[in-house]
Each structure stands twice: as C-alpha cells, then as structure tokens.
Specification:
Its cofactor is a divalent metal cation. The chain is an alpha/beta fold. The chain is built from 13 helices and 16 strands. About 35% of the residues lie in helices and about 20% in strands. The strands form 4 sheets. The chain has an 8-stranded parallel sheet, covered by helices on one side.
Length: about 375
C-alpha cells in the first residue's frame, strides 16, 4: 500500500498499579505502535508483547526487530489484508509482531470503505461485556479490591493463581462473594502432578480455570479436563483455528480465550470464531494490557458470535495513568458500546503518543 509514511514507535505507559502473574511483573507497559499515514490520515496497529519471553517466545525486542525487518516491507507491498498475509505467512511464528500489520491494514480498509470494522468482520453484538483480571496480590487485600471492581460495574472477576497462592486465595473471595461470576487463571503455572490440588478448585463453582498446564501441552490438558469438574479454558495453547479443532478432537477444553495478538490479529480471530462455532466451544475476549489502540481491536472483536463471557477489557483508567486515545476508554455498568463508525473505537491522541514515545523508527 502506498503509505506516505510508516512509523514504528515504542511507547511507555505508566501503570496505576504494578501487574503480577505467576511468572512476570510489570510497572510500566511498553507497547509497539505501528503507524501508517496516507492522504493525511493516520491508521494504527499495536503489538503488546512483554519485555521478556515469558508469555510466549516473543519479547519487546524480538517483536521490534521482526516488525522492522519483515512487517514493514510486507505492509508496503500489500494493497489489502489478504495481500499482507500472502506476503508474510511464509515466516514462522511471531504472531504478536505480525498482528501489528494485520490491525493496521484492517484499520485502513475500514477507513477506505467508510465501513465499521464490526461490519467488516460480520460482528453481531452491540456491546462488549467487561470483566476484570486481578494480578497476584496480597491475600489480605483481595476482598477489598474485588469489591471495588464490582462497585464499578465489572461483571466477572478473574484471579491470577499459582501454586501456594490458589486454594485459600480463591476460597476467601468465594466466601465473601458467593454469587459473583468467578474464574481463575494459572498462566501455565501447574503440571499434571498438581491435578489433585486443581481438583480442590471444583468446590468454588468457578466459571473456568484458564491455562492450568504448559503452553504447548494439549494432551495433558485433555487428561486434566476429564479429571476435574471445573471447565478448562485454553489461552497460550491456541494459536489458530486449527488448534481449536485439535483441542476439540481430544477434549482438551470447552472454552477458548481469544487474544487477537496471540493469534496474529483480526483475520485469524474471525477464523477462530468460526471454528468455535463448528466445534461447539465457547469463547471470550482476553487481553494483555493493551493501550487504547489494541483495546479497540478487542472491543470490536467482542461483537463476534461465539463470545459468551465478559472479557478482560478494562477502562483506560483501570490500568494506565494516562492512555494514548482520546476520549479514553470508559466502562459503563460493566459494558463498552461497540461503535458503528469506521476505524478504531477511540481516536489516537498523536500528542500523547509522541509524549510517551521512548524510541521511533521512520520508514
């Protein structure tokens, strides 16, 4: 596509509170923003990997180099999303990095056609239902934090857990909130040897337990799924629509967490929705603490037909001291309206983006 200018910016957004899971902790969220200018108008894509390869094999540094070396040339040589994937699909892995080009070109398509992204993906829903994810925190503070988010209208609570900070942790929340929709996320912190410990979570009436075992282990998830009663949701193990079919074939899970960047962007997300429909699996929208640019993609994809649970989509103020979109994303009564306008759900504030830019490359 004949962009007048392409930029890659690494931006740092200060978090309101540090965020911690079973294997990582961050205080500032570094994101990579791919920017394209054509006819005086900017369009965007985002890559929100972690500084170190602890969620998957990608890191901020690897994604940054992959985007510069491969994504930028592929975008330059593409007149459509389909062209982009024809140009870049021969390269193995790096879905987060690849997703920046996919999002940018979807954004451009929406603007060019004066058609909302929701209509382009054949989305059906009008609102994104919002839950909240609580990082591993002190047990004596957890009840107060949960109450605070329920008071803000969030419709589901997700607790990050790890061995030693799980049974008592979940029990305390369930005791104080017997009727709240509650789930646990293990981020691959357990092995099959923990199956009896995980079985104890059955007594807490959880909606699901997310990714209890290794990121690359469908087989043992199948064993665990037939041992515990709590439904298993897979996150890190699902990279494509074909992975959904494989997981279904061996009964490894009944729910899929859709993180658009984990699967390469919007195009594959739509395929995964169709696979979930065919395999009778439920789906919900995950997140990796994206800026308002990446969150726009989450919000729009929440209109897909197989999204059945509130997603990890929070207000900008839930995570950031200041976001890079204007207006910032807001949650009202646990929902975000999915707009019908072309482009992103919220406009990018170029001034704030420049202010938070740590490094910039122009192409």
């Amino acid at each position: 596509m004949d962009f007048e200018k392409l930029e890659l910016r690494k931006a740092g957004l200060d978090l309101v509170n540090p965020f911690e899971t079973s294997n990582w902790r961050i205080e500032t969220r570094e994101v990579l923003i791919l920017c394209g200018k054509k006819n005086g108008e900017w369009v965007y894509g985002e890559t929100s990997v972690l500084p170190d390869p602890v969620y998957n094999h990608e890191s901020t540094q690897t994604a940054q180099e992959f985007i510069k070396k491969y994504v930028i040339p592929a975008v330059k040589d593409s007149n459509s999303v389909e062209d982009y994937w024809n140009n870049i699909s021969y390269l193995k892995g790096h879905p987060h990095a690849k997703s920046s080009g996919d999002q940018l070109l979807h954004h451009r398509q929406s603007v060019n056609q004066e058609k909302s992204l929701k209509d382009i993906i054949n989305g059906a829903g009008d609102v994104a239902e919002c839950g909240v994810s609580l990082g591993v925190t002190d047990e004596d503070k957890i009840v107060e934090k949960v109450q605070g988010y329920l008071d803000q209208g969030y419709k589901r609570i997700k607790l990050k857990i790890k061995p030693g900070k799980d049974i008592g942790y979940v029990r305390k929340v369930r005791k104080h909130f017997p009727d709240v929709d509650l789930m646990a996320d293990a981020n691959s912190a357990y092995s099959l040897s923990h199956k009896d410990r995980l079985k104890k979570l059955d007594s807490f009436d959880l909606q699901m337990i997310e990714q209890p075992l290794s990121h690359d282990d469908l087989v043992n998830h199948s064993v665990l799924n037939n041992y515990i009663d709590t439904p298993i949701c897979l996150d890190e193990s699902i990279h494509s629509a074909e992975d959904v079919k494989r997981a279904s074939r061996i009964d490894a899970c009944s729910i899929v967490n859709l993180k658009p960047q984990r699967v390469g962007g919007i195009k594959e997300s739509v395929k995964i929705n169709q696979a979930c429909k065919e395999e009778d699996m439920k789906m919900w929208m995950g997140g990796v603490i994206e800026s308002g640019i990446g969150a726009s993609t989450q919000i729009i994809l929440s209109s897909l037909s197989e999204i059945k649970f509130p997603g990890d989509i929070g207000a900008s103020s839930r995570y950031f001291e200041e976001d890079i979109v204007n207006p910032e994303i807001k949650v009202n009564n646990g929902q975000i309206k999915i707009p019908d306008n072309p482009g992103l759900t919220n406009s990018v504030d170029r001034g704030k983006l420049k202010e938070k830019t740590m490094e910039k490359w122009t192409f």
